[in-house]
Amino acid sequence: MATTLERQLPIGQTAKPRFSRLSDRWLAGLFLTPTMLLLLFITIFPLIWSLFLSFNEWSVTRNALNAPIWIGTQNYAELLSDTRIGERTWERFIVTGQFVVPAVTIELLLGFGVAVLLNRKFRGRAIFMTVLLIPMMLSPVVVALFWRFMMQGEGILNYMATNWLNIGSIGWLTDRNTVIISLIIVDVWMWTPFMMLISLAGLSAVPKYLYEAAAVDRASGWFRFRHITLPMITPLLLIAIIFRTIDAYKLFDLAFVLLGSQGGPGRAGQTAALWVYEVAFSNFDTGMGSALGYIMLIVIIALANVFIRVLNAFKGEGAAA
Amino acid sequence: MNRKQPVWQRVLFWVVLGIVMIFFTFPMYWILSSSFKTRADVTSRVPLLIPYANFQPTMNNYLEILTDEPIESAAGAQSSGSRGEFRNRLINSIIITTLSTVLAVGLGTLAAYAISRFRIPGESDLMFFILSTRMLPPIVVLIPIFLFFSNLGLKDSFLGLTILYTTANLPFVVWMMKGFFYEIPVEYEEAAMLDGYSRLQAIYKIVLPECIPAMAATGVFSAITAWNEFVLSNLLNRDNASTVPPYLNSIVGVGAVEWGRLAAATVIFVIPIIIFTYLVRNHLLRGVTFGAVRR
Asked: With 0-12 CB in 10 A as exposed, 13-18 as middle and 19+ as buried, what is B2?
């Protein structure tokens, strides 16, 4: 074999370095470089650029040929003050909260409930599961279109509301009081399966003998749930909540297609992500848009830190118990 | 199910499950059935639920969007979207999804192998960095990428979108494949290398066959992400390289919506996703949590 022959030669005598004789160090570099380069150019470089732009007054369309004008922290100051744009920004973040908190809560409760329902043997279980998982695999654009179709003025939901429930037509996407609720419904439809999937994994991982021991002790169903199931699955559910909260917070495409970039009438459903888009790509206030983007980013980092602390606290408690 | 369970509990179980199923499947059914309706039936004030009983199904919507000629031409009805556009978009979507998936899985697998087998300084920081790019709101990097791509002439190009989708999927591929590599014993390669294989030969002959199924599952998830992506494609592309999701959105934006045609386009667009979901059903948990949760 060629390799074994080569191996017997003194190192210096190989005429040219062969690809197959690359050292592990070289290989590691070779394998990592393309990935790191792409992440550097498409993620890190833009991040730094947008940090720079956030300290400038500049617009891609209006004065693209001029250099950006350095204005220090003025963009941030304006966004955080009680000027018009500052007030709006504050309102956008409140709208985001009004959407994220109920949506994630309902998804968690509903998803867990469905998981409990499915966590037993019955005929057709695999089919039910697969079908229930489809919504989260669909494109947000497609999901938003499904619901726009059903929520339009003459759509099927309003037919049901008037003829079956007798509550009259609802302006799902046109009434400023219901826009957020509609957005929550659509997000719940799409992402409850995610919570269900993770809950189900947690439930099936609880060792059976714990329940058997509890049954011997004639523990009540509630006791079993509170003292066996819940502590076992909480860390997993926390991970699911982290994923969902961060994704819902930065949700863009679903809201954009469902409500438009202004988030429906009177900006009632305009979340922070939609607002950044409007500032950056409708008004083309590039510097201000970058600053807004960074404020969103800082909130995400803060959120993630809080969650990770809670998660670690839980893990510590579990280890101590 | 427990046979000793009282009848009322069993009935309750099926009733609740039925309600849940209706909530989650009805929107899908409604689009599917609408795609087989005529223009008049789609806009009917009274919902027409059951084919053959309530409405006569027709394939016209599918024929219309896949061929250039509008088959059922109602006088005065505005045709949304130019002719044959859906077909072009579909082809664009297929090309860009395929290219970016192959690239992301290829490059990401190499990086994951390096991280899981070689000693890399600051490995955990590196992994955290790779993960953190997922937490980034895309909107933050959107502005510079928009500028960057305008300057380089990468807007509205296959290359531009392929690079973006590849990069967007890389963190996912690295995390997933790293998890899979830890499940393949290092001893396999070490034994092969003791037998005189070089590292590359060992990877090619021993590791690769072992991780093909994992790469396939990871690839399917990456393909789903690329296939479904809307924001970047919508912002950067106009005609040449635009994909299906912005097209679907644009039809709704134009005046009177032809829901029948839109429904047919949506169904065609969604079929691959359903097939993909079925293929990776056993890896779903891993896939949606970045490999953080394993069974």
From this structure: exposed
> Nearest Cβ partner of B228 from A50, A133, A139?
A139
- pLDDT, tens digit, 9 for 90 and up, residues A22-46: 688 888 899 999 999 999 988 889 9
In total, the C-beta contacts within 8 angstroms joining chain A to chain B are 256
Q: Does A28 touch chain B (CB under 8 A)?
A: yes
Chain A residues with CB-CB distance to B46 below 8 A: 159
Tens-digit pLDDT profile for residues B222-246:
999 999 999 999 988 887 888 999 9
Mean pLDDT of all residues belonging to chain B = 85
B35 falls within a domain:
no
* B155-189 tens-digit pLDDT: 889 999 999 999 999 999 998 999 889 888 888 88
Max Cα-Cα span within chain A:
91
pTM: 0.88
CA dist B282 and A130 (Å) reads 10
List beta partners, residue A70.
Answer: A56
Rounded Cα gap, residues A107 and A165, in angstroms = 25
How far is residue A44's CA from residue B164's CA, in Å, rounded to a whole number? 13
Query: Strand pairing of A56-57 and A69-70?
Result: antiparallel
Provide the residue count of chain B: 295
How many structural domains does chain B have? 1
Residue B76 predicted with pLDDT over 80: no
Type of residue numbered A63: N
Q: Which of B46, B107, B259 sits opposite A35 (nearest CB)?
A: B107
What does the DSSP 8-state code read for residue B79?
P
Residue at B49 is within a domain: no
**Diameter of chain B by CA atoms?**
78
Cross-chain residue pair B118–A24, CB shorter than 8 Å: yes
Q: What is the CATH number of the domain that holds B182?
A: 1.10.3720.10
Per-residue pLDDT, averaged over A178-197, amounts to 95
Distance CA B88, CA B72 (A): 21
Q: Does a structural domain hold residue B21?
A: no
CA nearest to A196, candidates B284, B230, B175, B201: B284
- Name the residue among B271, B230, B235, B232 with its Cα closest to residue B248: B230
Q: Which domains does chain A have, with CATH numbers?
A: 76-320 (1.10.3720.10)
What pLDDT is stored for residue A13 in this prediction? 41
Domain of B146 in residue numbering reads as 87-288
> Scanning the structure block, which residue is given the tokens 């982290």?
A242
